[in-house]
């Protein structure tokens, strides 16, 4: 999967320079979000202290927002476009690398067409979605943890008081705790997704054979039996996703109120302004959201683990590692 793109000399420019360009672009977007976080403080302080500001101050602040937001929209659009190109290049490299070794295998491999076409396509889509979010999360943590750490000194948090980095530790604790519980709650999902693909493939295979030979394939009893297996697996999958969603939505809603509870006493005591509160809320949300990126994408991660499992099984069937090693040895000898 990875060597097809990153260890391929033909794809080196796309693989490494493309990745570097995406990371630089993501970092630039995060820096713009930092500017917006500072803007929150100034804007809400104007709204809180209207007697100390004029309408010109208000519109100047709005114009400042536009100067940050419009370039951000342009850069984000260009980054998304390039990300799609980059992941498609990865898909292209994987597809033809697998085809090359698959054609040399003499035995039939069940579901090979699905592995090469559908699973590689889905792998690329998940990488496009999840990979960009993870990169953004890492950059956001690098930028916002120092900000949130500094803001913690201004907030008198219940029980903890004005302790150094308290808001960072709260965000870290709830995020890691949420991820650990999510892993436990959703532990059966990858296996069910894997089984789901197997029963889907069996049902689809019977229908494909029936297109050319209805006399021997596609009997109603056979199709009903295959669909019954499919339905039974889906119902189990829906059940497990059901209680996982209960936990996921409950956790997500509870995180909305955490920074407000933490800062409520300080706001009521007048020790911080509304602007500082909104700045802290935004910074806390950025850090907590970045730490929770895996939990928020648990369904996508489950799908990725299932796809990875099937592709590794396919690589084993086409003897991918051995064939790749032989090819590298021949290249060195030449």
Task: Describe the protein's architecture and organization.
The chain has 334 residues and is an all-alpha fold. The protein has one domain (2-92, 124-315): ABC transporter type 1, transmembrane domain (ABC transporter transmembrane region fold, Up-down Bundle), CATH 1.20.1560. The mean pLDDT is 86. The protein contains eleven helices and no strands. It starts with a helix and ends with a helix. The relative contact order is 0.13. Helix 2 (12-48) runs antiparallel to helix 8 and helix 3 packs antiparallel against helix 4. The protein has helices at residues 3-6, 12-48, 55-102, 112-152, 166-185, 189-212, 220-269, 274-291, 293-296, 298-317, 320-333. Helices cover 84% and strands 0% of the residues.
